Amino acid sequence: xxxxxxxxxxxxxxxxxxxxxxxxxxxxxxxxxxxxxxxxxxxxxxxxxxxxxxxxxxxxxxxxxxxxxxxxxxxxxxxxxxxxxxxxxxxxxxxxxxxxxxxxxxxxxxxxxxxxxxx
Length: 119
Fold this sequence. Notes:
Elements: E1 2-7, E2 10-12, E3 18-26, E4 31-39, E5 46-52, E6 57-59, E7 67-72, E8 77-82, E9 91-99, E10 106-109, E11 113-117
């Protein structure tokens, strides 16, 4: 059992920055990868960034060059550094974790944190 809790969202002006954090607790052994999704009302969740246990990363085209995903294994936390924010980045951001182990593949979601980019 793994619990994920996001933090760091808020209101920021266009061009500003935010750092989102996702803290994991519970049975975090057999970690495979972590990711960030975002969702606006009435839309499906959009993948923003992924990081694997080995440190490989992937980004949505809209995030490349502006967002950076990282993982602090010691503190069981992943981060999403968001720079040069645009109004279209406004969404609820969700972290996700993928785990293997004795019970097979497991997917966990956090509850989300609101990011609003507006003047």
